[in-house]
Amino acid sequence: MEKYKMHILICGGTGCRASASEAIQSNLQEAIKAKGLEDEVQVVMTGCFGFCEKGPIVKILPDNTFYVEVKPEDAEELIEEHIIKGRKVMRLLYVDPENKEMISDSKHMGFYKKQIRIALRNCGFINPENVDEYIARDGYAALGKCLAEMTPQTVIDEIKESGLRGRGGGGFPTGLKWEFAAKNEADQKYVVCNADEGDPGAFMDRSILEGDPHSVLEAMAICGYTMGADKGVIYIRAEYPLAITRLKVAIKQAREYGLLGNDILGSGFNFDVEMRYGAGAFVCGEETALIHSMEGLRGEPTVKPPFPAESGYNGKPTNVNNVETFANIPVIINKGASWFNKIGSEKSKGTKVFALAGKINNVGLIEVPMGTTLREVIYEIGGGIKDGKKFKAVQTGGPSGGCLTEKHLDTPIDFDNLIAAGSMMGSGGMIVMDEDDCMVSMAKFYLEFTVEESCGKCTPCRIGNKRLHEILHKITLGNGTKEDLDLLRNLSTVIKDTSLCGLGQTSPNPVLSTLENFYDEYIAHVEDHKCAAGQCKALMQYVIDPELCVGCTLCSRNCPVDCISGERKEAHIIDASKCIKCGACMEKCKFNAISIQ
Amino acid sequence: MAKIKLAKSKVDKLVEICKSFDNEGSELINVLHKAQETFGYLPAEVQEIIARELNVSVAHVYGVVTFYSFFSMVPKGEFPISVCMGTACYVRGAEKVLEEFKRQLSVPVGETTEDGKFSISCLRCVGACGLAPVVTIGERVYGRVSAGDVADIIKEYQK
């Protein structure tokens, strides 16, 4: 990267690309060409910066200026002002929401201050489609070190000592898993990367693959070296076209450089990676189901043992790790286990990437040390709740997790604390909810997901979850009884205890945790037939306050079913029998005259 | 479902796809991906040919096709509308947006309008949670969509 005086980095993550970051790139390049600066300024499309809320992001090096919400038409001004005249374009700088100060360097922003980036170290720094940039940031040094200086066992010991635990949700110690796979003798073994990120609201694996694909390839080769495998397979969702493209490019480049293939770095070690595509099945995140899917079968789980380490893909010893777990490996080897295990909490070492989303000001991808509290994540990094509303709950762990409340805000986040609080780490989705979210509907939403995604192999999951969903639906319609709540609890326990795989063993968690933390809200639904959040349509009615209504007719003109009547300049009335409760009127009213009762 | 007689050129194409994966039964999912890419969907006739070529039962192929949500046995519309129903989009009002698409186009989720123009489906998280709620139509991504935007979006494609 020395050749150029200045570098313009543009976020090429999926979110920013959806907001035209490619057009920004081409406009910038045109403007640079027009000014004859092609040899001075380089434009690089990087992986995700994480601050999706403020995307598209453009960062200029060497002065580290961080521009937010950039539009393609801003390109010319950026070149003219910043690059040529050396003046920052003030209107595109980030404004601190608290003190209204402009901040140009991301490290001073609340969103980035508390973050430590290990798994995401290269996302937003390098061009993921250029292996040289990865190598320039110590890429493949760890693989070289392992092959030249370490025996397979010393590598495994290093990983064990680091305390790294599986980032896909299970939290199983990675070093131990590698050791099991290493100990099983066979003529063929496999390393599998689980990139079937199915958690709705979690997108860290895709961001790593899109922003830093080589880190995963390097780690898979290291894993192959420790367990004696020469084949690696990445199982990735077909819904992630960009990640697939970047991986293909990365594999090709690594092969060209002799970092994959035969006799890697002259060590005599062979390792190559191929890709398999998922086809949309949440249960395939479970490792035995994933392996069946790789074999071209329905992705149904099987009972363990035998564990994949004994009999996995094609009946051979197989080690399956998640993308984020792999992304940590090269850093641990380079910096040492004793560096890594100083970060984090007592039993959960290192950092965790979370996808922060929902009713929060700073939606994005963050990486914090284990043991950071929910309060720090939501208020300091996340910038608090959107539109000044009141925090109600945060859902962690996706469909297998639970809802945590105000009282959990000071809980340090790690694998064990989250389980003790009735939720789980999962893959790291973190959805923040405010006072307008109904917890019964939320539980129903997750059950809807589980019912759809249950593979149907075992009865408790296939039928039990369906019944849970029906009861929740009944409650949201206002037809539930108090006995239904007991039934929900009993049935949930049975499903948890008797299901075959992780999906069924955790699917009732959203129900149990909301029952535990928001019992009053369930009672309000079944006894008073009220939904305080105003989300259960059957339990609410839109009404116009005749005192506040000025008769502007905006609501009646926007009503899709013509159920609002009234003369101009007179108070309007909603016909409840015709109203479909779409909320369009309330959204349009400029006088706050429409409310939910 | 009505039987469609596949043209010979299509059958040849399928045979070719299967051959490119060495007619290996374990490559079934990859073959189905390619076949769907080529034909847009996987009707029974296509599945029958794949089963024959890979030397597996039609029931096995059907079992796999119906297991994975990515595979479809009905053709999608010219402009396939997908509303993201990931949690982040859901809490920011995706359900209302979905309802509005269903209402305006008068088709339920998973089906195609009579003129073959639009189909509606739900998808789980495209990973653009910063833009929630998100709707995709073909390759195009619409961010921060509200129920009020739906009519305008549909209009863009009705010309």
Gist of the model:
Chain A is an alpha/beta fold and 597 residues long.
Largest interface pair: A-B, 58 and 43 residues
| Record field, number of beta strands of chain B | 4
- The CATH class label of the largest domain in chain A is Alpha Beta
For the CA atoms, what is the radius of gyration of chain A?
26 Å
The proportion of strand residues of chain B reads: 5-15%
Q: Summarize the amount of helix of chain A as a percent range.
A: 25-40%
Low-confidence runs of chain B: none
- Overall 3D form of chain A: globular
Q: What is the CATH fold-level name of the largest domain in chain A?
A: Rossmann fold
The name of the CATH architecture of the largest domain in chain A is 3-Layer(aba) Sandwich
Largest sheet of chain B: 4 strands, mixed
Strand order of the largest sheet of chain A: 12-11-15-13-14
N-end to C-end Cα span of chain B: 32 Å
Q: Look at the helices and sheets of chain A and give the structural class.
A: alpha/beta
Distance from first to last alpha carbon of chain A? 61 Å
In the predicted model, the low-confidence regions of chain A spanning at least 5 consecutive residues are: none
Beta content of chain A: 5-15%
Q: Give the overall average pLDDT of chain A.
A: 94
Oligomeric nature of the chains: heterodimer
- The coarse overall form of chain B would be elongated
How would you explain this protein's 3D organization?
The complex is a heterodimer of chains A (597) and B (159). Chain A has 597 residues and is of the alpha/beta class. In chain A, strand 17 and strand 18 (573-574) form a beta hairpin. Chain A is globular. Chain B is 45% helix and 11% strand. Chain B contains seven helices and four strands. Chain B has helices at 8-20, 28-39, 44-54, 58-67, 87-91, 94-105, 150-158, and strands at 79-84, 118-123, 135-137, 140-142. A four-stranded mixed beta sheet of chain B has the order 2-1-3-4, with helices on one face. The radius of gyration of chain B is 18 Å and the shape is elongated. The model of chain B has no long low-confidence stretch (mean pLDDT 91). At the A-B interface, helix 1, strand 11, strand 15, helix 17 and helix 24 of A face helix 2, helix 4, helix 5 and helix 6 of B.
